Amino acid sequence: MISIKQLNYALAVEKTLHFKQAAEISNISQSALSTALHELEKQLGLQIFERDNKKVLITPVGKQVLDKARTIMLHVDDLEHLADSQRLPLSFPLTIGVIPTVCPFLLPKVLPVLNELHPQTKLNIVEEQSHVLVEMVRRGDLDAAILALPYPVEGLLSMEFWQEDFYWVAPKDNPLTQQEAIHSKTLNHCELMLLKDGHCLKDHILEACKLPEQAANQGFGATSLNTLVQMVIGKLGTTLIPAMAIEQLIAQNEELTAVHLSDPGPHRRIAFVLRPNYTRMSSIEALIAVCKSALACDKTARLKHS
Fold first, then answer.
1. For the chain, percent helix, then strand, then coil, each to nearest 5?
2. Which run of H or E residues covers position 268?
3. What's the Cα-to-Cα distance from 183 to each of 115, 211, 218, 244, rounded to whole Å?
4. So which residues are the signal peptide here (predicted)?
5. pLDDT band at 161 (very low <50, low <70, confident <90, very high)
6. Lower CB density within 10 Å: C or N end of the chain?
7. Across the strands, what pairs with 126?
8. Distance between CA atoms of 259 and 186, rounded to whole angstroms?
9. What is d(CA 149, CA 133) in angstroms, rounded to the nearest whole number?
């Protein structure tokens, strides 16, 4: 009879493509893992892995087996945590993914409120790009992920909790910073710098501004908003940032000014993304309530000082 342990061992080998490493993360000996997988293949009557001295390959039929094994383990995990849905929200550890253009700006606002309202909460945060987080949610490696929409999340449930606009950032001596708002048509002449390809914020900005790919300065490969802002300080160009990043990146820097982008918004939407059959929904709903409260307070404070 096929066991849950055998499926876990097979998925560990798929993850590492290395029997010794798979055994280490499974906390068993390499020989015990190999024996269990040989027995699994014998029970199924097919070969999942091709082995030699240098590498491990997954056979085409093995790929199908591992896909089904992953689905089974997700259901097992949901079954094991079914009792959690009857417990108090946030009374058990959660692993949440957050994209880099949200993580460093959202967490300082949310965590103090979360610690005050739910001091028992144990959060593990994974910061990664959207495509990585979506796949981790699908695999069950994350309870949920915080993404900026629009982004393709077919088959997953998205729970939007915030909307925000973009702000144009430039040195204060730039004459256009005297305006209360700026339209994207003007940005064609502002040496606009954006994040490198792969960051969804770049796509959201190009879409919100209806700008062609060539409108962004391609001479740099910045991977963080902080780097872009430092480049603006160095008079290398200008950039756009989301509203939630203003306090951290701009408010404390007297050399810069942030001007609201006047193109119709909201320019991006922030949401939790999770599996439709997720059993800890009350905890995600509690996190959403905390995020909304913290961001609303931050927005009110920002408007008072603007």
1. 50, 20, 30
2. strand 268-274
3. 40, 11, 21, 20
4. none
5. very high
6. N
7. 97
8. 12
9. 13
Token reading at 162: 């915030």
Q: How far apart are CA 65 and CA 47, in angstroms?
A: 10
User: Do 22 and 76 fall within a single domain?
Assistant: yes
Among candidate residues 61, 80, 99, the one where a domain is terminated: 80
- Parallel/antiparallel/unpaired status of strands 166-171 and 157-164: unpaired
Give the Cα separation of 127 and 295 in Å (integer). Answer: 19
Separation CA 59–CA 47 (nearest Å): 7
pLDDT per residue over 266-283, tens digit each? 999 999 999 988 888 889
Task: Look at residue 85 and tell me if it is in a domain.
Answer: no
Place of tokens 């005050």: 116
| DSSP conformation letters of 183-198 | -HHHHTTS-EE-PPTT
In the structure, what pLDDT confidence band is assigned to residue 211 with cuts at 50, 70 and 90?
A: confident
- Domain encompassing residue 30: 2-80
Count the domains in the chain: 3
Q: For residues 231-252, give the mean pLDDT.
A: 89
Type of residue found at 288:
I
CB within 8 Å of 213: residues ≥ 6 apart: 206
List pLDDT tens digits, range 68-103.
888 888 888 777 666 655 567 787 889 999 999 999
Residue 23 pLDDT greater than 80, yes or no: yes
| Contact by Cβ (8 Å): 133, 99 | yes
Q: Write the CATH number for 42.
A: 1.10.10.10
From 80, 112, 135, the end of a domain falls on 80
CATH number of the domain enclosing 177: 3.40.190.10
